[in-house]
Amino acid sequence: MTPQEKDLIQSVATKLKQSPESKKDADAEKFITDEIASQPDAIYKLTQAVLVQ
């Protein structure tokens, strides 16, 4: 990982920490958990996708 990549990842983490709490849609949360969170490396892959966008 380069210093620039680390800075980009840190920026994503900071934005997530600073985002306000919001009411979650229970159905959407369950669907996300079932379809995405259960996959190996989901956090890594999603972070990479965010960085590309």
Which H/E pattern describes the elements?
A: HHH
The portion of residues assigned to helices is over 70%
Radius of gyration: 13 Å
Largest sheet: none
Report the mean per-residue pLDDT as an integer: 94
Fraction of residues in β-strands: under 5%
Number of strand elements:
0
Number of helices: 3
- Give the overall silhouette: flat
Distance between the termini: 18 Å
Low-confidence stretches: none
Summing up helix and strand content along with how strands pair, one would put the structural category as mainly alpha
Task: Provide keyphrases for this structure.
single chain, mainly alpha
Structure write-up:
The chain is mainly alpha-helical. 74% of the residues lie in helices and 0% in strands. It is built from three helices and no strands. The protein is flat.
Q: SSE layout and pairings?
A:
Blueprint: H1 3-18, H2 26-37, H3 42-52
Short description:
The chain has 53 residues and is mostly helical. It is 74% helix and 0% strand.
